[in-house]
Amino acid sequence: MLSSKLISWGVILRILFIGDIFGRPGRIIVKEKLPALVKDHSIDLIIANGENSAAGFGITPPLAEELFELGIDVITTGNHVWDKREIIDFFQMADGNAHSPSRRLLRPANFAPDLPGHGLYEGCKGGVAYAVINLQGRVFMTSNDDPFRKADKLLNDIHAKVILVDMHAEATSEKVSLGWYLDGRVTAVVGTHTHIPTADERVLPNGTAYITDVGMTGPYDGVIGVKKELVVGKFLNNMPVRFEAATGDVRLSAVVIDCDETTGRARSIERIMMA
After folding, report:
1. What is the mean pLDDT of residues 39-49?
2. End-to-end alpha carbon distance in the chain
3. Is 221 within the bounds of a domain?
4. Is 219 within 8 Å of 225 (Cβ atoms)?
5. DSSP 193
6. Which of 1, 22, 162, 243 has the fewest CB atoms lying closer than 10 Å?
């Protein structure tokens, strides 16, 4: 049953979105903190970006299954999705099988259409239909299809009112622009990729919750998750170096979004960081 609360303007559904899970430290803190987080915030639906869950670069089938077993309903990704080649076969398991667990692992929808996997998941939780869209930006990133027009196309075919968009992008201007573009048409636009949490969470005028970047779930005693001495050295000498995940000061970054399940409009968005 949903833990929704009746108020004057509708039934409230509470969504938890967990920012980029980075390596083993990120996975461990999610495992440790998620049960209490779900209980304390009466969470109904859990979504997480997991593209860096495999030692900071990519995701593997066993790690995707591990995150699903923790109670995460949908996993989004981004530019690191192909870093572990074995994930391709996992994506292909979903082709022609809408009920495969791998269908709940997304790659950006505006990637080339003939690539494995999907960028949209439509599901039902506690009797409430919902959709998750995964997009990737184009500014300072590799060339992909237009995420704005791709969102238009996907929204034309979605019947659920509750719709969350993960905009995996580098440029803050591109993320903010997508938030305004989709205001009133989706429940939330949440930014991922930079691993740096922003303090601009708000509900836009037409009912879309927005934040430029949820932040990283992983080790903050480093440079966006990587051992700091390796990255500092790279800036100093520009020599090739193998990046390794940091381990210290591990935090869980997330947002909780209240929305009306009948209209899809967001009521509030709350930024969370747990150590």
Report:
1. 97
2. 30
3. yes
4. yes
5. S
6. 1
- Residue 8 scores a pLDDT above 50: no
Show Cβ contacts of residue 190 under 8 Å, excluding neighbours closer than 6 positions. 17, 164, 165, 166, 167, 209, 210, 211, 214, 255
Domain annotation covers residue 75 = yes
Q: Which range of residues forms the domain containing residue 261?
A: 6-274
Active-site position among 80, 118, 168, 193: 80
Q: How far apart are CA 126 and CA 155, in angstroms?
A: 22
Task: Give me 116's structure tokens.
Answer: 């494995």
Backbone angles phi, psi at 155, to 5 degrees: -65, -25
Give me the phi and psi of 35, to 5 degrees please.
-55, -45
Give the CA count within 13 Å in the CB-facing half-sphere of 169. Answer: 29
* Distance between CA atoms of residues 58 and 248, nearest Å: 20
Establish if 161 belongs to a structural domain.
Answer: yes
pLDDT digits (tens, 9 = 90+) for 177-188: 999 999 999 999
Q: Is 118 a catalytic residue?
A: no
CATH number at residue 71: 3.60.21.10
pLDDT over 80 at 39, yes or no: yes
Query: What pTM did the predictor assign?
Result: 0.93
Note whether 64 and 90 are within 8 A (CB): yes
Give the C-alpha separation, 181 to 151, whole Å: 10
Per the domain annotation, does 1 fall within a domain? no
State the total domains in the chain: 1
* Strand partners for 163: 131
Give pLDDT, residue 3. 40
Across the beta sheet with 120-125, the strand order is 120-125, 128-136, 162-168, 188-192, 209-211, 202-203
Alpha-carbon distance values, 78 to 20, 25, 109 (Å): 10, 20, 10
Q: Where are the alpha helices (DSSP H) in 71-182?
A: 87-92, 147-156, 172-182
